[in-house]
Amino acid sequence: MAVDPALAGRSFPATEPYDVSREKVLEFVRATGSDFDGRTAPATFPIVVAFAAMTAFMEDPAAGIALHNVVHGEQRFTYTRPAVVGDRLTATLTVDSLRQIGGADIVGTRSEVVDATGEPVCTAFATLVHRAEGAG
Amino acid sequence: MSDLATGDVLPVQTYRVTRADLVRYAGASGDFNPIHWSDRVAGSVGLPGVIAHGMYTMALAARALDAWAGAPGRVRELGCKFTKPVVVPDDDEGVEVQVAGTVSAVTDETVQVALEVTCGGVKVLGVPKAVLVRG
Fold this sequence. Notes:
The complex is a heterodimer. By secondary structure, chain A is of the alpha+beta class. Chain A is built from two helices and five strands, in the order E-H-H-E-E-E-E. Chain A has a five-stranded antiparallel β-sheet with strand order 1-3-4-5-2. Chain B is α+β, with helices and mostly antiparallel strands. The longest helix of chain B has 16 residues. Chain B is built from three helices and six strands; from the N terminus they run E-H-H-H-E-E-E-E-E.
Protein backbone atom coordinates (compact mmCIF):
# COMPACT_ATOMS: atom_id res chain seq x y z
CA MET A 1 0.00 0.00 0.00
CA ALA A 2 1.37 3.36 -1.01
CA VAL A 3 1.25 6.47 1.11
CA ASP A 4 -1.89 8.54 0.54
CA PRO A 5 -0.93 11.51 -1.70
CA ALA A 6 -3.54 13.62 0.12
CA LEU A 7 -1.20 13.69 3.14
CA ALA A 8 1.01 16.34 1.56
CA GLY A 9 0.60 19.60 3.44
CA ARG A 10 -1.17 18.00 6.36
CA SER A 11 -0.15 18.74 9.97
CA PHE A 12 -0.52 16.28 12.81
CA PRO A 13 -1.35 17.06 16.46
CA ALA A 14 1.48 18.30 18.68
CA THR A 15 3.28 15.66 20.74
CA GLU A 16 2.84 15.38 24.50
CA PRO A 17 5.17 17.83 26.28
CA TYR A 18 8.67 16.45 26.83
CA ASP A 19 10.53 17.67 29.92
CA VAL A 20 14.25 17.97 29.22
CA SER A 21 15.75 16.65 32.45
CA ARG A 22 19.42 16.77 33.39
CA GLU A 23 19.37 12.98 33.72
CA LYS A 24 18.01 12.44 30.20
CA VAL A 25 20.51 14.87 28.68
CA LEU A 26 23.32 13.14 30.59
CA GLU A 27 22.22 9.77 29.19
CA PHE A 28 22.42 11.22 25.68
CA VAL A 29 25.77 12.90 26.41
CA ARG A 30 27.27 9.67 27.76
CA ALA A 31 25.95 7.55 24.88
CA THR A 32 27.50 9.87 22.31
CA GLY A 33 30.59 10.92 24.28
CA SER A 34 29.59 14.56 23.93
CA ASP A 35 30.73 17.50 26.05
CA PHE A 36 28.28 18.77 28.66
CA ASP A 37 28.34 22.16 30.36
CA GLY A 38 25.61 21.16 32.84
CA ARG A 39 22.87 22.86 30.84
CA THR A 40 23.12 22.64 27.04
CA ALA A 41 21.78 19.53 25.29
CA PRO A 42 23.74 18.12 22.31
CA ALA A 43 22.67 19.47 18.92
CA THR A 44 20.90 16.28 17.86
CA PHE A 45 19.09 15.83 21.20
CA PRO A 46 15.80 17.35 19.88
CA ILE A 47 15.47 14.25 17.65
CA VAL A 48 14.03 12.62 20.77
CA VAL A 49 11.00 14.93 20.55
CA ALA A 50 10.90 14.94 16.74
CA PHE A 51 11.14 11.12 16.73
CA ALA A 52 7.98 10.97 18.86
CA ALA A 53 6.21 13.14 16.29
CA MET A 54 7.48 10.98 13.42
CA THR A 55 6.46 7.76 15.14
CA ALA A 56 2.96 9.11 15.86
CA PHE A 57 2.66 10.18 12.22
CA MET A 58 3.80 6.81 10.88
CA GLU A 59 1.51 4.90 13.24
CA ASP A 60 -1.48 7.03 12.23
CA PRO A 61 -3.77 4.78 10.17
CA ALA A 62 -4.34 7.73 7.81
CA ALA A 63 -0.67 7.62 6.79
CA GLY A 64 -0.82 4.06 5.45
CA ILE A 65 2.80 3.47 6.49
CA ALA A 66 4.24 0.17 7.72
CA LEU A 67 6.95 1.08 10.22
CA HIS A 68 9.25 -1.81 9.35
CA ASN A 69 9.35 -0.58 5.73
CA VAL A 70 10.67 2.87 6.63
CA VAL A 71 14.25 4.04 6.33
CA HIS A 72 15.51 7.38 7.60
CA GLY A 73 17.00 8.88 4.45
CA GLU A 74 17.98 12.38 5.45
CA GLN A 75 17.93 14.64 8.51
CA ARG A 76 18.43 18.35 8.90
CA PHE A 77 18.06 20.74 11.83
CA THR A 78 17.85 24.49 11.94
CA TYR A 79 18.11 26.04 15.40
CA THR A 80 16.82 29.21 16.97
CA ARG A 81 18.66 28.16 20.13
CA PRO A 82 19.97 24.92 21.67
CA ALA A 83 17.65 22.83 23.85
CA VAL A 84 18.59 23.20 27.52
CA VAL A 85 17.85 21.40 30.78
CA GLY A 86 14.50 22.61 32.08
CA ASP A 87 12.89 23.02 28.66
CA ARG A 88 9.43 21.58 28.09
CA LEU A 89 9.33 20.76 24.39
CA THR A 90 6.61 19.75 21.96
CA ALA A 91 6.89 18.91 18.27
CA THR A 92 4.31 19.45 15.55
CA LEU A 93 4.85 17.48 12.36
CA THR A 94 3.81 18.62 8.90
CA VAL A 95 4.15 16.54 5.74
CA ASP A 96 6.09 18.92 3.50
CA SER A 97 6.38 16.79 0.39
CA LEU A 98 5.46 13.43 -0.98
CA ARG A 99 6.83 11.84 -4.12
CA GLN A 100 7.06 8.36 -5.52
CA ILE A 101 10.24 6.97 -7.02
CA GLY A 102 10.42 3.36 -8.21
CA GLY A 103 7.99 1.80 -5.76
CA ALA A 104 9.13 3.91 -2.82
CA ASP A 105 7.40 6.87 -1.22
CA ILE A 106 9.75 9.69 -0.29
CA VAL A 107 8.06 11.55 2.57
CA GLY A 108 9.50 14.92 3.53
CA THR A 109 8.50 15.88 7.06
CA ARG A 110 9.05 19.03 9.11
CA SER A 111 8.71 18.98 12.90
CA GLU A 112 8.59 22.36 14.60
CA VAL A 113 9.97 22.02 18.12
CA VAL A 114 8.82 24.75 20.52
CA ASP A 115 9.28 25.43 24.24
CA ALA A 116 6.63 25.79 26.97
CA THR A 117 5.88 29.37 25.90
CA GLY A 118 5.46 28.35 22.26
CA GLU A 119 8.72 30.02 21.25
CA PRO A 120 10.69 28.13 18.56
CA VAL A 121 13.72 26.07 19.57
CA CYS A 122 14.48 24.22 16.34
CA THR A 123 13.00 22.66 13.25
CA ALA A 124 13.79 19.04 12.42
CA PHE A 125 13.43 18.09 8.75
CA ALA A 126 13.36 14.33 8.18
CA THR A 127 13.11 12.49 4.88
CA LEU A 128 11.52 9.08 5.35
CA VAL A 129 11.78 6.48 2.61
CA HIS A 130 8.84 4.07 2.65
CA ARG A 131 9.00 0.99 0.48
CA ALA A 132 5.56 -0.46 -0.16
CA GLU A 133 4.99 -4.20 0.38
CA GLY A 134 5.88 -6.24 -2.67
CA ALA A 135 7.73 -3.38 -4.35
CA GLY A 136 11.11 -4.13 -5.92
CA MET B 1 36.83 29.91 16.31
CA SER B 2 37.29 33.66 15.86
CA ASP B 3 40.35 33.28 13.63
CA LEU B 4 38.94 30.72 11.18
CA ALA B 5 39.07 31.40 7.45
CA THR B 6 37.49 29.76 4.44
CA GLY B 7 39.46 26.67 3.44
CA ASP B 8 40.83 25.97 6.91
CA VAL B 9 41.06 22.26 7.66
CA LEU B 10 39.82 21.36 11.15
CA PRO B 11 41.57 18.64 13.21
CA VAL B 12 40.14 15.19 12.45
CA GLN B 13 38.18 13.70 15.35
CA THR B 14 38.24 9.92 15.82
CA TYR B 15 35.54 8.20 17.85
CA ARG B 16 35.25 4.53 18.78
CA VAL B 17 31.76 3.00 18.66
CA THR B 18 30.88 -0.26 20.42
CA ARG B 19 27.69 -2.28 20.86
CA ALA B 20 27.43 -0.90 24.40
CA ASP B 21 27.29 2.64 22.96
CA LEU B 22 24.40 1.65 20.69
CA VAL B 23 22.49 0.14 23.61
CA ARG B 24 23.05 3.32 25.61
CA TYR B 25 21.95 5.43 22.65
CA ALA B 26 18.80 3.35 22.13
CA GLY B 27 17.80 4.06 25.72
CA ALA B 28 18.80 7.72 25.57
CA SER B 29 16.98 8.41 22.30
CA GLY B 30 14.02 6.05 22.54
CA ASP B 31 14.90 4.43 19.20
CA PHE B 32 14.71 0.70 19.96
CA ASN B 33 14.75 -0.54 16.35
CA PRO B 34 16.31 -4.04 16.75
CA ILE B 35 18.60 -3.58 13.72
CA HIS B 36 20.70 -1.51 16.15
CA TRP B 37 21.15 -4.31 18.72
CA SER B 38 20.10 -7.70 17.28
CA ASP B 39 22.26 -9.51 14.71
CA ARG B 40 19.34 -11.83 14.04
CA VAL B 41 17.01 -9.01 13.02
CA ALA B 42 19.74 -7.06 11.19
CA GLY B 43 20.58 -10.17 9.15
CA SER B 44 16.92 -10.86 8.37
CA VAL B 45 16.63 -7.49 6.60
CA GLY B 46 19.80 -8.04 4.60
CA LEU B 47 22.28 -6.06 6.68
CA PRO B 48 25.79 -7.48 7.27
CA GLY B 49 25.23 -7.09 11.02
CA VAL B 50 24.05 -4.67 13.68
CA ILE B 51 24.43 -1.07 12.47
CA ALA B 52 24.67 2.21 14.34
CA HIS B 53 21.61 4.46 14.36
CA GLY B 54 22.05 7.05 11.61
CA MET B 55 21.25 9.61 14.28
CA TYR B 56 24.09 8.20 16.40
CA THR B 57 26.58 8.90 13.61
CA MET B 58 25.05 12.35 13.18
CA ALA B 59 25.50 12.91 16.93
CA LEU B 60 29.21 12.12 16.47
CA ALA B 61 29.36 14.80 13.77
CA ALA B 62 27.76 17.23 16.24
CA ARG B 63 30.30 16.14 18.88
CA ALA B 64 33.13 17.08 16.52
CA LEU B 65 31.48 20.46 15.86
CA ASP B 66 31.37 21.12 19.64
CA ALA B 67 35.05 20.17 19.87
CA TRP B 68 35.99 22.57 17.07
CA ALA B 69 33.76 25.34 18.45
CA GLY B 70 35.24 24.87 21.93
CA ALA B 71 31.79 24.75 23.54
CA PRO B 72 28.39 23.11 23.07
CA GLY B 73 25.40 25.09 21.86
CA ARG B 74 26.98 26.82 18.85
CA VAL B 75 25.32 24.76 16.10
CA ARG B 76 22.68 26.70 14.12
CA GLU B 77 22.26 24.26 11.21
CA LEU B 78 23.17 20.61 10.78
CA GLY B 79 22.18 18.25 8.02
CA CYS B 80 23.16 15.03 6.24
CA LYS B 81 21.92 12.07 4.26
CA PHE B 82 22.27 8.56 5.65
CA THR B 83 24.04 6.82 2.79
CA LYS B 84 26.08 3.89 4.14
CA PRO B 85 25.65 1.83 7.32
CA VAL B 86 28.20 1.83 10.15
CA VAL B 87 28.44 -1.87 11.02
CA VAL B 88 29.36 -2.37 14.69
CA PRO B 89 30.78 -5.83 15.51
CA ASP B 90 29.94 -7.70 18.71
CA ASP B 91 33.39 -7.34 20.29
CA ASP B 92 35.17 -5.00 22.69
CA GLU B 93 36.91 -3.07 19.93
CA GLY B 94 33.90 -1.84 17.97
CA VAL B 95 34.66 0.44 15.00
CA GLU B 96 36.23 3.84 14.52
CA VAL B 97 34.30 6.72 12.99
CA GLN B 98 36.33 9.68 11.77
CA VAL B 99 34.90 13.18 11.44
CA ALA B 100 36.82 15.64 9.26
CA GLY B 101 35.80 19.21 8.56
CA THR B 102 36.74 22.11 6.31
CA VAL B 103 35.58 25.69 6.72
CA SER B 104 33.51 26.39 3.62
CA ALA B 105 32.35 29.96 4.35
CA VAL B 106 32.73 32.60 7.04
CA THR B 107 30.54 35.61 7.87
CA ASP B 108 30.70 38.11 10.73
CA GLU B 109 28.33 35.90 12.76
CA THR B 110 28.77 32.36 11.44
CA VAL B 111 31.19 29.68 10.29
CA GLN B 112 30.00 27.13 7.74
CA VAL B 113 31.65 23.71 7.87
CA ALA B 114 31.68 20.97 5.22
CA LEU B 115 32.07 17.65 7.02
CA GLU B 116 33.31 14.25 5.94
CA VAL B 117 32.30 11.34 8.14
CA THR B 118 33.94 7.99 7.38
CA CYS B 119 34.17 4.49 8.78
CA GLY B 120 36.95 2.25 7.44
CA GLY B 121 37.66 4.86 4.77
CA VAL B 122 34.07 4.79 3.46
CA LYS B 123 31.90 7.90 3.62
CA VAL B 124 28.85 7.01 5.72
CA LEU B 125 27.00 10.34 5.60
CA GLY B 126 26.02 12.18 2.42
CA VAL B 127 26.91 15.88 2.16
CA PRO B 128 27.07 16.48 5.92
CA LYS B 129 27.34 20.20 6.65
CA ALA B 130 26.80 22.62 9.47
CA VAL B 131 26.62 26.27 10.39
CA LEU B 132 28.09 27.40 13.71
CA VAL B 133 27.53 30.73 15.39
CA ARG B 134 30.74 32.48 16.45
CA GLY B 135 31.34 32.79 20.16
